[in-house]
Design a protein that fits this description.
heterodimer, A: mainly alpha, B: two-stranded antiparallel sheet, 9% helix
Chain lengths: 152, 425
């Protein structure tokens, strides 16, 4: 093995060591929470959902698995419509997310409906934690997508 | 297949009758895997670090980059992103552990060539290359990248080791980098290990050399330093970016490989511009001017030692015609001047490629290449047709089948079939 090869090994090992050391030095706070969400169920039983939401579910499966696994969206603890609206807008703004305004509205209506139908306990708890004005506004928005929702 | 075996003249120890079975196995595996292709949920290195899917930076399939991917690299491994108001920001780094900084890429390939030497066919099956790729941002401004081949035909090779500094606001970024660099700004073609996956025009070696000069390709990693400017904007998710770079390089040696020191006691210059628009559309241009010193030992003194000077300039781009149909094209001209006759030859060529995303995890590619190393001499151009298909079985396994047919100077039309499995971790 020539000196040139050894030099190359040395440079490579040093470069890898630097990158590894830098990488090891950092750790995200919410990694465990996201892992838990990602490991949860990957589908939603939408057979009892209205036809509009069943159609929207297909879009949801496509768009919400582009950057992260679909399980993260399905198992999200986010349930309040205003939070979902802000989050979906943020996803729309992402470079080349490919989510149009119409698609964003469809996704918002689906996740708001889904939260009111599938995560009822979580939603009621979240509503109870809101101020009276915010709670009333949130319930109005939920009823706009799911009139059958029974407010706490 | 039996007919092929009987008609083939096997070559030494690199060919065995068993190898044809491996090729058959690899092709059949590819064929059977196509209908089973699913959108995978696991993500290697950069995806692990940024907690995002491969599709964030690659489209339609890795290794081809979309515009976010190109910008991600130029921002020093920092993701272009948006804040709650839709303003363009650069996403903070969130590395977890060493597995998020380094990936291992391994290719296993089976290959059948109709004619390697006159009248001789060859079938091979090999672990063609294992590569370790590591790259990360270091704080807010510095980043580093290394590509390391632990074994390549008995040698250990460092393909790439560079340090980069980025300064400025997210919209206006100034960058400088140096080391053994990947010089090529445009990373849009479907490039990989397969012979023709890189267009001939922009590959690591552009067909034939001139006289004793081994030839030059824009894809060769070189030692040098670069400064650049990036202007990026984001409007309701639509990303635009303009990239301009100027690079000074050590150039290549007479064999066309990266030179540790500039053999002509000068420097090569490489100017590039690239505009990113839409999801993955690009248009760009480049100018490269280089030189290499031809050693008098070559060809047993039949040549006069001296400087081989060459230039390449051209344009390239890609455009998404339909949601799943992408057209890629490039053209280049240039000249080579050397002490060897002819004193000056004019280089030229182009390629055009159609990429179709047949299913979310399955692509088909057709490309036509034409490269003429000497435009003043008739009949020396190389034409090549390439048809390939790649399927992502999951984010750790990609299967490719490729057929290529070339037309060479005064020769038959050799073809090759390649089946390649790429493992990425």
């Amino acid at each position: 093995m020539s000196a040139r090869v050894f030099r190359r090994i040395g440079i490579g090992a040093a470069a890898l060591a630097v990158t590894a050391a830098v990488a090891i030095a950092q750790s995200p706070a919410d990694e465990a929470r996201l892992k838990k969400l990602d490991a949860g169920p990957k589908t939603i039983d939408v057979s009892q959902y209205p036809a509009e939401q069943q159609r929207a579910y297909k879009l949801y499966q496509t768009k919400c698995s582009t950057c992260h696994v679909i399980a993260r969206a399905i198992n999200s603890e986010m349930v309040v419509p205003a939070d979902w609206e802000r989050y979906i807008k943020r996803m729309m703004y992402k470079p080349n997310s490919g989510i149009s305004s119409d698609e964003g509205r469809t996704l918002y209506r689906f996740v708001a409906y889904d939260a009111s139908a599938r995560k009822t306990d979580l939603l009621r708890k979240a509503l109870a934690a809101l101020s009276a004005a915010d709670r009333a506004a949130a319930i109005e928005r939920i009823k706009a997508v799911n009139p059958a929702f029974v407010a706490p | 297949m039996r007919v092929l075996i009987e008609r083939t003249t096997w070559l030494n120890d690199c060919v065995t009758r068993g190898s044809i079975r491996y090729v058959t196995w690899a092709i059949l595996t590819t064929a059977f895997a196509l209908p089973m292709a699913t959108v995978a949920e696991a993500t290697p290195a950069y995806g692990r670090r940024y907690d995002t899917a491969c599709q964030t930076c690659h489209a339609p399939l890795p290794p081809r980059l979309n515009n976010v991917g190109v910008l991600f690299r130029k921002l020093g491994f920092r993701l272009p992103d948006a804040d709650d108001q839709g303003r363009f920001i650069i996403k903070p780094v969130a590395a977890h552990d060493i597995g998020d900084a380094a990936s291992v890429v391994a290719d296993v390939a089976g290959r059948r060539d109709s004619e390697v030497e006159e009248g001789e066919a060859r079938t091979t099956f090999e672990l063609s290359e294992v590569e370790i790729v590591a790259g990360t941002a270091i704080g807010e401004r510095v980043s580093a990248q290394a590509m390391f081949v632990p074994w390549d035909e008995g040698e250990i090779e460092l393909e790439n080791a560079e340090i980069q500094v980025n300064l400025g606001t997210p919209r206006h970024q100034w960058m400088a980098r140096g080391g053994l660099m990947q010089t090529y700004l445009w990373q849009k073609s479907t490039h990989g290990r397969l012979t023709l996956s890189t267009p001939l025009l922009y590959g690591s070696r552009a067909v034939e050399g001139i006289g004793p000069f081994g030839g030059f390709g824009l894809g060769v990693s070189q030692i040098g330093a670069e400064v650049g400017y990036l202007f990026s904007s984001l409007n309701e998710g639509r990303l635009r970016s303009t990239m301009l770079t100027a690079t000074v390089l050590n150039g290549v040696n007479s064999e066309g490989e990266a030179a540790l020191r500039n053999t002509a006691k000068g420097a090569d210059v490489y100017l590039q511009g690239l505009q990113l628009f839409g999801d993955r559309n690009t248009v760009g241009g480049f100018y490269y001017r280089g030189r290499s010193f031809l050693d008098e030992d070559q060809d047993a003194g039949l040549i006069t030692p001296g400087k081989q000077r060459f230039a390449r300039y051209g344009v390239m781009g890609n455009y998404l015609l339909l949601k799943r149909l992408d057209v890629v094209a490039g053209a280049a001209l240039g000249w080579d001047r050397s002490p060897v006759r002819p004193a000056e030859v004019r280089f030229g060529g182009f390629f055009t490629e159609v990429d179709a995303q047949l299913m979310p995890a399955w692509i088909g590619v057709y490309r036509f290449d034409r490269v003429d190393p000497n435009r003043d001499e008739a009949g020396d151009a190389t034409f090549a047709h390439t048809v390939s298909t790649t399927v992502r079985v999951d984010d750790h396994l990609y299967l490719t089948g490729e057929f290529q047919r070339r037309r060479l100077v005064d020769a038959d039309r050799p073809w090759a079939i390649i089946a390649n499995a790429r493992f990425v971790f």
